[in-house]
Amino acid sequence: MTPDDLRATCLHLNGATEEFPFPRHPEVCTFKVGGKIFALTTLTASPLTVSLKCDPELAVRLREAHPEIVPGYHLNKRHWNTVTLEGGSLPDAFVREMIEDSYDLIVAALPRATRLLLDWPGERSERSE
């Protein structure tokens, strides 16, 4: 996955925004939904990495199965993974799935009104019950 692919994948998600909130580190890019970060990266870094929120049990399993996935760099290591994207050993579809899972974890914790505005699938299934 290239930096452009990463950016496009993150921004494709409903309500996602790109911000550079750290004045002391202007190269650090965050992707947010509802004002909360779901992906953190430096798009110009080599190797390209992205930190993503993850269910704690799944985070451990992913780290055990893939050497490219490690505990979140400078983040809560229980809830965040840092994924190395260069080298092509992780399929792009797998990385997109991890990004979507991170987004979903963040959206699920947002107020219901925000989830409704985002037309989040999890909220749609609750309305149909």
Automatic annotation (TrEMBL):
Protein name, as recorded: DNA-binding protein (MmcQ/YjbR family)
Pfam families cross-referenced by the UniProt entry: YjbR
Coiled-coil segments on the chain, per record: none
Any one GO MF annotation of this record: DNA binding
Alphabetical keyword list: DNA-binding
InterPro entries assigned to the protein according to its UniProt record, in alphabetical order: YjbR, YjbR-like_sf, YjbR/MT2646/Rv2570-like
Gene3D superfamilies (UniProt xref): 3.90.1150.30
